[in-house]
Every structure is written in C-alpha cells, then in structure tokens.
Amino acid sequence: MKKIMIAAILLTLIFNSYGSGKPAYLLFNGKGKVVKFNKLVQAAEKADVVFFGELHNNPISHWLQLELISELMEKKQRNLVLGAEMFEADNQTFLEQYLMDEITQDSLKKVARLWPNFKTDIAPLVDFAKRNQLKFIATNVPRKYASLVFKRGFEALDTLPDPEKSFVAPLPVAYDASLPGYVNMTKMMGDMGHGRSTENFPKAQAIKDATMAWFIFSNMEAGKTFVHFNGAYHSDNYEGIIWYLNRLMPNLNILTISTIETSQPIKLPAEKKQVADFIIAVPESMTKTH
Fold it and tell me: Phi and psi at residue 56, in whole multiples of 5°?
C-alpha cells in the first residue's frame, strides 16, 4: 500500500509539472518509468552502437541528439563516430569535403541530396562533427537503388555496375519477410490497394536497413561509440538496421532510443513499452520543423 501511495504521489507531481510547466518532453526507460537524461547518457557511454530513432520533423529529437553527443564528447574524450540515414553513401566524399573545410555548406547543398530540414535539424550535428574533428558517415543507400528494389525487387541490384554496388550492402541481401516491422508495412500497402508493389515495399525498406547496417559495421572503431541518427522505424523493436547489424557482428552492446508523439506525455502508452531502451515522449502539439 505504501508503494502504491508513493507511486501515486510521484505521478501526481509529474502531472502537475506537465500541467503547469509544460515540459517539452519526458524520457522513459523501456519499462515505462520516467528517468533523467543523465541515465541515458550513462547507458550510451557504455554502448558500442547507439541508435537514436527520431521523428524527422520533431525538433525535440534533433535537440536531444545534439545534447547527447555533446555529453558523450566530454565523457568519451572524442571516442565517437557519427553516422546518419540522412546522407546517402555515394555522397560520402562530398560530406568529407565539407568536414575538412574544402567546400562550403552552400556547395554541399548543390552536390549532395540534402533533406529539406538540413539547415535546422541535421546541419547542427554535422557542424558538431566538423568542430570536433569527428568522422560522420553517410550510411543510407542511394534513393534511386531503393526505388529500383521497390519496382523490381532485390534481383534488380544484380544489374548494377560494380562501382555502384559499393554503395549498397553486399549482395545477395538477406531478408526475413516475417519480421513484424516488414509484415506491418506489407499489410499497410495491401490495405492501400497497391497490388504487385506490396511485397517489394518492405524490401525497399530492407535494402536501406541492410545498407545502413553495413556502413555502420564498416566504420566501427575499437573503443569508440558509433552514434547513428535514423527514423525511429528503422530501429524500433530492435528490428530493421539492428537485425542486419547483429548478423554482421553478434554480441554488440547496442542501445536504442525512440521518439513518440502522444496526447498524454506524462505516461508511456502501453504499446510503446519495450519499443526501445529509452523512449522520448513529446506532446502531439509540439511545433514541427518542416
């Protein structure tokens, strides 16, 4: 009874804090308990790979990404490697030129396929790497190859010239259509009446996951934590990129972070428990970046 009363008091305090102070987010562990940001930093410090699953237009995700790597920078004394879904593998050279001050940000925009929210959400992360001389890896598959898989399946990748295959995970690509994330995507496409393209839709997602895992694996360094920024769907429930990375290197210490928007940020929705090691809950009314 005493524990129940204490829990009720704590929940009341959180609710009152949210109602009066309107915090921009609350951080939960996988079990749904509210935790401090420092708890996340401590866990990330010990990880081999950290997957920061964001909502692409959510400013809290991007702010906390910068806060996390800033904290890790101090604690790990530069033993960090950064990478992101937002850069495609064939743009790695341009990204490195920017990091080395060989081209300007305006020039980078002209030669690389930057996302529309680059300036507000992604550039701060890249500029952090630039200031601190950290590696920043373009991990995603070039979008034209994901589109090719969507139209013609994995087999279409075999027709690529060898130099272009270097921007894709090694072929043939493993694939498990029974993974819940891919099953849900197939169902969604079927419900939308997309016919023949239904089975290839999750495959297009899988080639992204496989390629991101490959470039994370290829750029890991002993003693360094690789922090990867991606849409939450690519790492939620320890699937997607993580499924592929575990095939390449089992027994890694992997930490996952997810971001959700909810009408009741004071409590983690039951279906979101265990979706990641840490979950950032943001009010649905939060301003969007694009």
Answer: -60, -30
pLDDT at position 6: 37
Q: What is the number of other CB atoms lying within 10 angstroms of the CB of residue 146?
A: 20
User: Region 242-246: what's the mean pLDDT?
Assistant: 98
CA distance 87 to 141: 9
Tell me the two tokens of residue 148. Answer: 């090719």
Instruction: List, in order of start, the domains of the chain with CATH numbers.
Output: 25-283 (3.40.50.11550)
Helix (H) / strand (E) element for 86: namely strand 80-88
Q: Which amino acid is at 186?
A: T
Let me know if 159 is exposed, middle or buried by CB neighbors in 10 A (0-12, 13-18, 19+): exposed
CB proximity list for 156: less than 8 A, separation 6 or greater: 148, 149
d(CA 220, CA 224): 7
pLDDT of residue 127: 98
Q: Is 139 exposed, middle or buried (0-12, 13-18, 19+ CB in 10 A)?
A: buried
Which of 271, 259, 273, 269 lies closest to 229 in space, CA to CA? 259
As a dihedral over the C-alpha atoms of residue 159, residue 163, residue 165, residue 169, rounded to 10 degrees, the angle is 170
Instruction: Give SS3 for 47.
Output: coil
Global pTM reads 0.91
